[in-house]
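Allow me, if you will, to draw on your knowledge of protein folds for a short while. I am sending you one protein, given as its amino acid sequence and as whole-number tokens for its backbone shapes. Kindly check, if you would, that the fold set down in the tokens agrees with what the sequence suggests. The record follows directly beneath this note:
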Amino acid sequence: MPVFEYKALSKNGKSCKGLIDADNEGNARNKLRATGKYPVSIRESLDKKEVNKKQFLGGVLFDRVKAEEIQVFTRQLATLLGAGIPLINALASLIEQSTSPALKRVLAQIRDSINEGSTLTNSLAKHPRLFSNIYINMVRSGEASGSLDIVLERLADFGEKQRALQGKLKAALVYPIFMAFIGTGILFFLIAYIVPNITQVFTDMERALPLPTRVLIMASDTLREYWWLVAGFLFLIIIFIRLFLASETGTRFWDRMQLTLPGVGKLTRQIVLARFASTLGSLLNSGVPLITSLQIVSSIVNNSLIKDVLDNAMEQIQKGKSMSHALETSVWFPPVFIQMISVGEQSGQLEGMLEKIATSYEREVEAAILGMTSLIEPVMIAAMGAAVGFVVLSILLPIFEMNQMI
């Protein structure tokens, strides 16, 4: 639904401005008059140029609300509600102070939907791209229990923890990816442009060359003459891998590899367990029923093997078994994890125990990431040294043979 920017006069003659959603400009004017505001000027929030950009690029680069903006909005809304400010007034204040035009439009639509009698949950559900199932279900439980400000505070904390964990993982991968690109570029330049000028002397000798030198010359000739064929071959391999991973068999194969690869597998399992415990604990703390919480967690777990375990666990729980008993047959949930859940169930403090588990595994993930980053640098240096060393050795071996002949 289009969003309109307006300037209006209130009943007491004061000037005001804001955003309102309506099917057209006439309906927008009628909605304003119904609220006691008399429009002075009104125009659609998006101009034609912005609309064309959105249509051309699908709204990927334009009209985008960032995850950070949603978290800031959540924190601010929780603070305003906790201070006793009504929901409509709180949303109006956030619309006024927001610097993101896209977020302003979304918040205006949410506010107008609530004004028309809808709940905050239903209003948020109209924007599934911005508000996840976890977010919507926690807000629903907060509205039902009358503790919306507390739930929103938990949502903000939960989002910040998830973002912090993702940020640490991305930061750990930046260096090796950067080094891989730079190293590959340097090697390509050496082999394709520098090596041919040096090895031309060896080929003119018409003598048998050492194996490393022959391999280097063959690689150099291939890259110079058939670079397009090499690029096409690599492109086809990437396409094949993507198609394979998109299939059910490929997805399960990749998910299993992620959980079982030496070193990486342990880190992946720790991340999955931390996310599972943190998400489930936040949902249960907000009053969401256990089965519903597990369904939400199952839908966001990015691993088909873990999802199968959770789906089976839900069936066992519905038959009357405890969650610890339903998960103990899985090889992906360690005994300590199961024991802590069992203690939480027996003491009636499952939510608190899940938060402790999440904190423990998040610390383990941080330690593992620090260890991985400290190991990546020497490994990358060793790999680059081995590649450059091979090039240097391939060039020096024929020179040593020439010196022996002389």
Q: What stands out?
A: The radius of gyration is 30 Å. Strands lie at 3-9, 15-21, 38-44. Residues 47-62 have pLDDT under 50 and may be disordered. The domain at 264-365 is CATH 1.20.81.30 (Receptor-associated Protein).
